[in-house]
């Protein structure tokens, strides 16, 4: 009995385009920006914790530290504004998410 | 001026027989017609460019977007009409799935201008070039045809059939269901398994093998909510998995993409709610 040898598929199939071509919609931009703002706020929080609680006032005796704070002082205003934007967006979207998730509990639809 | 002379000549001769007068009138009419200008002299054509994803497994070329120009005046209104016209007249090698051409079979699901939908139900958008690509993040077999085996296996894995522990009340007769219980299935039984929703979900893109996707979960909810099915607890436990159900982060792209107007996101939230309250 002769066995038929199946020809091997040498060519790997490509994946159809997804992120580059899919039109960004309201339903998709809300969750991803929620995640990005959340990650941003987490890093800000982490650096503030390191800066304020861990380092201690001894750091100001170092010249480099004083120079760094002086030269980056202009950036602090804009980064505070961005942090405020991220925080407000994250809170608003979080509340909206909670409300929409639990909006179905009032109705008697489930078994 | 000539017509006026002919008319006056006819009226001055009353003895002309009616048949003869009719012949004269008829020739007079055709002369007037010949002097009319053809209104169809300049036909305006509405050109439209389609950028269609092409890939041939038999050639070593990379996938590309090819441009096709068609005249919208000689084409039906839907994208499927345009694809068929391109296949008939310009490029017969264009490959795509199609069957019913009325939005009930789900074969022609593809991505048109960045949004998933059925080609037979999507009107050709006016304006610049339209991009037609296959369903996102699926393996391409050829041109616009994708490999749906993973999608169908996930549908099979939720066991989409009626399962009972006790036999029917009246044997060999239908299991009865009240109208309210039947209403619970509305919004789920209409699914045609076109895969527009699952392939629009970014969570399904990043975890196609472990996350079941909105379509399979919509059908899972359809069987969970069916009052005639007695394996509700087992169905809920089968889906109650970190990956199978909880990869859904309520992005809700699925509800936007569904060509039948269903809301798989809502059904998934129903399953999550039942998981929370029942077990």
From TrEMBL, chain A:
GO terms for cellular component: mitochondrial inner membrane; respiratory chain complex II (succinate dehydrogenase). It is a single-pass membrane protein. It is found in: Mitochondrion inner membrane. The keyword Transport applies. Pathway: Carbohydrate metabolism; tricarboxylic acid cycle. Heme binds at residue 90. The heme is bound between the two transmembrane subunits. Keywords: Heme, Iron, Membrane, Metal-binding, Mitochondrion, Transit peptide, Transmembrane, Transmembrane helix, Transport, Tricarboxylic acid cycle. NCBIfam families: succ_dehyd_cytB (TIGR02970). This is Succinate dehydrogenase subunit 3.
UniProtKB/TrEMBL annotation, chain B:
Residues 181-211 form the 4Fe-4S ferredoxin-type domain. This is Succinate dehydrogenase [ubiquinone] iron-sulfur subunit, mitochondrial. It comes from the Eukaryota. It catalyses: a quinone + succinate = fumarate + a quinol. It is found in: Mitochondrion inner membrane; Plastid. Component of complex II composed of eight subunits in plants: four classical SDH subunits SDH1, SDH2, SDH3 and SDH4 (a flavoprotein (FP), an iron-sulfur protein (IP), and a cytochrome b composed of a large and a small subunit.), as well as four subunits unknown in mitochondria from bacteria and heterotrophic eukaryotes. Its EC number is 1.3.5.1. Belongs to the succinate dehydrogenase/fumarate reductase iron-sulfur protein family. Its main location: mitochondrion. Residues 50-138 form the 2Fe-2S ferredoxin-type domain. Pathway: Carbohydrate metabolism; tricarboxylic acid cycle; fumarate from succinate (eukaryal route): step 1/1. The keyword Hydrolase does not apply. One of its GO terms (biological process) is aerobic respiration. Gene3D superfamilies: 3.10.20.30, Alpha-helical ferredoxin. NCBIfam families: dhsB, PRK05950.1. Its cofactor is [3Fe-4S] cluster; [4Fe-4S] cluster; [2Fe-2S] cluster. Binds 1 [3Fe-4S] cluster. PROSITE patterns: 2FE2S_FER_1, 2FE2S_FER_2, 4FE4S_FER_1, 4FE4S_FER_2. One of its GO terms (cellular component) is mitochondrion. Keywords: 2Fe-2S, 3Fe-4S, 4Fe-4S, Electron transport, Iron, Iron-sulfur, Membrane, Metal-binding, Mitochondrion, Mitochondrion inner membrane, Oxidoreductase, Transport, Tricarboxylic acid cycle. Iron-sulfur protein (IP) subunit of succinate dehydrogenase (SDH) that is involved in complex II of the mitochondrial electron transport chain and is responsible for transferring electrons from succinate to ubiquinone (coenzyme Q). One of its GO terms (molecular function) is metal ion binding. It is a peripheral membrane protein.
